Every structure is written in structure tokens, then in C-alpha cells.
Amino acid sequence: MKILVVDDEADVQPLFLQRFRKEIRNHELEFNFALSGEEALDYLKEKHSEVVLILSDINMPGMSGFDLLTRIRNDYGIPPPPVVMMITAYGDEESYQQAMDKGANDFLTKPLDFNLLKEKLKPLIV
Amino acid sequence: MHFFPFLAAFLLIRHLQRSLKFSPLLPKWKNMFWVGTATIVVLFFAFLKDKHGVLNDFVGVAVLGSLLYYLYNEPDFKPFHSYLFSHLPLLAAAFIGACVRLINEDFYEDFSSVFQIAIVGAFIWIFARVANSKKQDEALRVAAERKAELEALVKERTAELTLQKNELEQAVTELKSTQAQLIQAEKMASLGELTAGIAHEIQNPLNFVNNFSEVSMELIEEMEQELERGDIEEAIAIASDVKQNLEKIGFHGKRADGIVKGMLQHSRASTGQKELADINVLADEYFRLSYHGLRAKDKSFNATLVTNFTPGLPQVNIIQQDVGRVILNLFNNAFYAVQQRQKQSSSDYKPTVEVSTALLIGFIQIRIKDNGTGIPDEIKEKIMQPFFTTKPTGEGTGLGLSLSYDIIVKAHNGTIDIDSKENDYTQFTIKLPLTN
Is Phosphoprotein found in the keyword set (chain A) (predicted)? Predict the structure, then answer.
């Protein structure tokens, strides 16, 4: 299963790679990374059919996670639409509601609880 | 003709007596005046019988001369000196007449009318002078009165001014202490605005520290398993990952450390010490703090942050904390402006704040530009004034830009320029001299 992680902090990349070390080695999961919403859209242009899950930070310079979410829901509505989980350091009700209104499937707060994330991924892994 | 000096002496004493009528000096001189008058009269009559004798003339000259000499040397009569001097022509005329008469009686008789005219003329001269000096005295008296009035007025005004000066000095002292308090309050207010941004900025590296240390624990366990299994190669790969993680923990720990240090530095009173600083680092740090500060208050707010830092800028000698405050202030203003414009505009408005640095000849330039509400022309002149703010009451102190001006221009010999177009953009340009 292909997962796209969108975060302007480059250091999330080794973190995901190490946390999902076993899953990657067993070819259960494949991670790709984008450092901005713009970069994510570029990537999706080519490979949107392959990407099953998008994990996106909300708070990024330039295009925000919400903007990205709106674009994904507008541009890639053909079934099956990708699962989008929003991640933010601001775990408040307002952000949660906004994410849900814009069509997010889930909402995670930083610091990421990877065990929780793994639980959430289980039903997605075919 | 001997008659005139006597008469002049007699009138001189009478005149003095009259002049001193209301003066405290009169009792002292009263008797002397009578003695003088009596002496003159007695002498006049004593020598009267020598009707055409030359002796009579000399006695008259002597009487007038000694009287003048005596009065001239009395300090009490100093104000009358010019009056006394007016008798000198008569004295001289009478004396010359008497001398000529003594030497050559015939010559004198031939020209007696000339001498007589001279003596009468000199006598009249005295009265002309008296009349004239009376006029002058009157003018002087008026001038003296006016002077006294003016002096009293000046004294009064001086007293008022001294009082005002003291009050003003007091006010200035109070203002100075108020200003110091306000500067501190402003600093604290901007720190308050920053708190959320700072929390976010610290939270991020802390998350990494926690995540990387957790994942490293897992990796170590895995490494142990691999070693037990004898897969040395895999164990070495894991060890290299762990090493990398520890580096990242160190890096993010230092990042949080730097932020906390910066915050403490911001809240402390300025040391006023100039030190070499990297403008790019300073600007970058406050750029993010300011952005997250605003975002923490308004979650729906999002802006594009553009940085155009010229790499390899020389360090500048500045009071870091103060210049940092200026930059922070300008960022806060910029984000506020784009946020305000976003509230008024359609959804295709893209809030953008841009910071750029450049090296000019002798200067480092920092430019902060936003595409926010802009500054209307009518308030452009006012924005640097203390306490001027367009924010609602309680939201702005109105001191930000005024303090910024003081810091950049007065303390660092730099310049701060504003370029703005309403509903288009605002651009602040700071230039700091490299030699400070």
C-alpha cells in the first residue's frame, strides 16, 4: 500500500521509515514524501491511482494542509478516493471540525502516536 | 560785575535746598545750607563798599569756586554734578575778568562790555542748563519708573518661569520612568503575542526528540535480535540508523534550546551591548515565531512565507535583542495586515509575507513586504508617532514602530523606510551600517 506523507519538516521522513521498518521490509507499506502541498499535488498528478493514503500536516508554509485536502477532494473524486488523514500540532475542536468539513477521513495530533496510527492503518492494508 | 558769582552761589544753595526738600538728606544739610547762604550774603555786603575794587571780584570767584569744590567732593551731591559743572563758565569768566582787571585796569575798562556780556551770558547759561536738565531729569524719572515697573514684571515672570521649569522637569522625570515602563510593557505584550508561536516552535523539536528516542529504543531491541540471530550486516545497518537518530535528537534539542534562549533574551531588559549577529538567522527565527504566534490565535489563518536570504552576509554589530524586536514587530504588523485584508477579500486572495536580506555598500538591508491592507496616505506621517495605532483599543500599544525607529535610527545609525499602497502592499526597508 502506497502512503504519501506531506510535511514541511524533513525529519519526519526517517521517523516514518524507521517506525514502519518491518512493514516496509515485508512490502506491506511503501512510503513517499512531499515537503509541501504543491509538491504533493505534483506527485499525485502522476501517481494518484497508486496512492491509497495521504497523511498531511495542516500547518505548512505556502499551501496549507486544508488547501491540499480541498484540492484532492476536488481533483481526485473518482472512486476509490484516497484516504486522507490530517495531522496537526493544534489539536483543537475548531481544526478538527474544519478538517472533517473539508472531507478528511481522520484527524491526528502531533506528537504522532505511531501505535495508534498502526491500528488505524490495519483495516486499510489489504 | 562781582554781583553775579555771589548771586550764582546764593541761588546754587537755594536750588540744592529745594531739590532736597523731600529727601532724607535734608536734615543733615539744612544747617550747612543756612550757614552757606549767610556767609555769602555777609561776604557780599562786606565787600560791597569796595564797589569798583578788583578785590570784590576775586572774593566772588573764591566764594563760588570754593562752594563748587566743596560740593563736588561731597558724595551726597553726586547727582548734582552736571548742575555744578554748569557754573564753571561763569566762574571762569569772572576769574578771567578779575585777572585782566588786576593786570591792566585800562584794558579792562576799554573792553568792560565784552567781559560783562561774557559774565551775564555765563550766568544765563546756568539757568538754561537747569531748565534743560529739568526736562532731562523728568525724562529720566519717567524712564526710571518704567524701568522699575519692567524689572518688577521681569522678576514676576522669572519666578513664574522658574516654577514652570521645575514643574516641567518633574514632568520629564515622570515621563521618563513611564516611558521605561511602557517599553517594558510593550515588550511583554509582544512576548504575549509570541507565546503561542513559541510553544508551537518548541513543541515541534520536542516531538522529534521524543519520537526519535522512542524509535531508537525499538531499533536497539531489533538490533539485539539481529545479533542473536547472527545477522551482523543488518545489526550494523540498524546501528547506523540509531546513530543518525541520536544526531537528530541532539539537533532538535539544540533547536528548542535556541528558541527558549531567544525568548528569554527577548523578555530581558536590554543590555545595550552590541555584538556580532547573523541577520539571516535573526530574521528567520522571528519570521516563524511571529507567524505561529498569529496562527495560534487565528487557526483559519494561513499565509505564504517567502524568504529571500542572501547567503554569506557579513555579521553586523548590533544590540541583537533590540533589532530582533524591531524585526519581530514588523513581521507582526505584516501578518496582521494580511490577516485583516483576508477578512475583507474574496477567497482567491493569497496572503503573502516576504523577507529578504541583501548586502549593499556599507550596509545590510532587511526588507519585509506584505500584500496586506497597506497604509493609507493620510496616516503615513503618523505611524512612527508614539501611541499611534490603527488597532482596536487594547490590541496595540502604538509603541511598536516608534520604538523601532528609535532602535534603528538612534541606536544603530541605520534607516527605516516605508513604502506602501493602500489595499496593495506595505514594504519596510531597514538599513544597518556594517561599521557600527
Answer: yes
User: Which residue would you say has higher pLDDT here, A40 or B108?
Assistant: A40
Query: What average pLDDT score do residues B405-415 get?
Result: 90
CA gap B36, B9 in Å, rounded: 9
Domains recognised in chain A with CATH numbers: 2-124 (3.40.50.2300)
Q: How far apart are CA B436 and CA B433, in angstroms?
A: 6
Assigned domain for B214 exists: no
Task: Answer whether residue B158 is part of any domain.
Answer: no
Structural domain includes residue B211: no
Q: What is the pLDDT of chain A when averaged over all its residues?
A: 88
Q: Which domain holds residue B64?
A: 3-110
Whether the CB-CB separation of B49 and B2 falls below 8 Å is answered with: no
* Among the partner residues A66, A89, A95, nearest to B200 by beta-carbon distance: A89
Hey, what amino acid is at B97? G
Which tens digit of pLDDT belongs to each residue from B182-241?
A: 777 777 776 666 676 677 778 888 889 999 999 999 999 999 999 999 999 989 999 999
User: Grid coordinates representing B333?
Assistant: 504588523
Quick one: pLDDT at residue B126? 86
Task: Report the pLDDT value the prediction gives residue B21, as an integer from 0 to 100.
Answer: 80
Of B251, B291, B302, which to mutate for an interface test with A (greatest number of A Cβ within 10 Å)?
B302
Yes or no, beta carbons of A15 and B222 under 8 Å apart: no
Residue with cell 547759561: B125
CA B271/CA B254 separation, integer angstroms: 24
> What residues of B are in contact with residue A92 (Cβ under 8 Å)?
299
The pLDDT of residue A126 is 62
Q: Is A64 on the interface with B (CB under 8 A)?
A: yes
Does A113 touch chain B if contact means CB atoms closer than 8 Å? no
Query: Residue B350: which CATH number?
Result: 3.30.565.10
Q: Does the distance separating the beta carbons of A95 and B241 come in below 8 Å?
A: no
pLDDT over 70, % of chain B: 93
Residue B171 lies in a domain: no
What's phi and psi for B434, nearest 5 deg?
Answer: -70, -30
Which among B110, B139, B160 is the end of a domain?
B110
Q: Which of B80, B110, B140 is the last residue of a domain?
A: B110
